[in-house]
TrEMBL record, chain A:
One record GO biological process: chemotaxis
UniProt name for this protein: Chemotaxis protein CheC
Protein's UniProt keywords contain Endoplasmic reticulum: no
CDD domains recorded: CheC_ClassI
Keywords, ordered alphabetically: Chemotaxis, Hydrolase
UniProtKB/TrEMBL annotation, chain B:
Designated name of the protein: Probable chemoreceptor glutamine deamidase CheD
Catalytic activity entry: L-glutaminyl-[protein] + H2O = L-glutamyl-[protein] + NH4(+)
Main function: Probably deamidates glutamine residues to glutamate on methyl-accepting chemotaxis receptors (MCPs), playing an important role in chemotaxis.
Assigned protein family: Belongs to the CheD family.
Enzyme's top EC category: hydrolase
GO process annotations (BP): chemotaxis
Gene designation per UniProt: cheD
Length: 207, 162
């Protein structure tokens, strides 16, 4: 059976969600250790939507956002995109770097801030992929992260194009990083290649 | 107040006489703006991929350069556009993430989309009279039906009038 998001069953969705939840848990733990403070994450929401609607769900195509893009290979291949709004990204870099938050509305990020955000992408991706890997026994190697700060639509176009070769829909996972009373909304888009998807489901024993 | 018609990703629209066709946040995708000034017929497509030929799931004509241009021309002709008077302006095709070493071909898809757009428009004998492509930043474009002007807006890279 060829895989498409159009015929994803609710069972498959639940599995993705479960993996997402465990991945988020792993990520929160790694972040907490790194920052030496408690970071929580809420239960992620997994959504499947038409291309045309995704940007609106995430806040409008022209909204400036930070995107951290990675690819993974090994037994399964695919891409990961972490999207943060600019103000959340600024706050997170301040946390990571232990200094005061620089002007939250300013779009420019210093080299060290970019590096910190790329590291965040690394940690979250490793946590998520680690969850998939430990469930399935599949080997997954992430690439180095790539940073961009620009219009949401423009950044989304990169994984969307990857999706576009096989489907008109996209899957994305919405999670909040919680630091005390601060909440940072993050969108995490994980896209296994279409050939990899059945492999994951098979390794999980659901097909 | 001009009416504004939004063109989404992998989408295309045609309007006549007045109004603005707008597509937001073009990244590696390409915006293809076709215009016939004699009838003020404006068509805008937001394509994602260079060709429908290599891909099985290709029902959405607006997603690919080849099928989008064909379909856009067909719709414009239905609105009585003069085929010989149609000209093109294109924008987009950026490389959003800069990469070092071996990255997948998806990261330079912008460049391939632009090249495919140029090739397909040439096959249809449609002259490209203005172009703002490449770079590493996103663009919002507006095609004005009353005069064929294409406005390109960016974050931090200014506004261009094509």
């Amino acid at each position: 059976m060829s895989f498409s998001f159009d015929n994803l069953s609710s069972l498959h969705l639940d599995i993705l969600k479960e993996i997402g939840t465990i991945g988020a848990g792993n990520a929160a733990t790694s972040l907490s250790k790194m920052l030496d403070r408690r970071i929580d994450m809420n239960v992620p929401e997994v959504k499947i939507a038409e291309f045309k609607d995704v940007e609106d769900i995430m806040g409008g195509a022209e909204t400036p956002v930070v995107g951290i893009y990675l690819e993974f290979s090994g037994d399964i291949c695919g891409t990961v995109l972490l999207v943060l709004d600019v103000i959340s990204a600024k706050h997170i870099t301040a946390l990571l770097l232990g200094n005061a938050c620089s002007d939250g509305l300013k779009r420019d990020f210093s080299e060290i801030e970019i590096s910190a955000l790329e590291e965040l992408g690394n940690i979250l991706t490793a946590a998520y992929l680690g969850a998939i890997s430990s469930f399935t026994g599949l080997t997954i190697k992430p690439s180095v992260p790539y940073f961009a700060c620009d219009m949401l639509g423009a950044i989304l176009s990169v994984p969307m194009i990857k999706f576009g070769q096989t489907s008109d829909k996209a899957m994305f996972i919405e999670t909040d990083l919680i630091n005390g009373t601060e909440r940072f909304r993050s969108h995490f888009i994980v896209i296994p290649d279409m050939e990899s998807f059945p492999l994951i489901l098979k390794a999980l024993g659901v097909v | 107040m001009d009416r504004i018609v939004k063109v989404g990703m992998a989408d295309l629209k045609v309007i006549v006489g007045d109004g603005i066709l707008i597509t937001l946040g073009l990244g590696s995708c390409v915006g293809i703006a076709l215009y016939d000034k004699t009838t003020k017929t404006a068509g805008l497509a937001h394509i994602m991929l260079p060709s429908s030929k290599l891909i099985k799931n290709n029902q959405n004509k607006a997603k690919f350069v080849d099928t989008a241009v064909e379909y856009l021309l067909e719709l414009m002709m239905k609105m009585d556009a003069q085929r010989k008077c149609i000209t093109a302006k294109i924008a987009g095709g950026a490389q959003m993430f800069s990469f070092k070493g071996n990255a997948s071909e998806i990261l330079n898809i912008g460049e391939r989309n632009v090249q495919a757009t140029i090739d397909v428009l040439r096959q249809h004998n449609i002259p490209i009279i203005a172009q703002d492509t490449g770079g590493n930043y996103g663009r919002t474009i507006e095609l004005h039906a009353k005069n064929g002007i294409l406005v390109v807006k960016t974050i931090g890279h200014g506004v261009k009038i094509l």
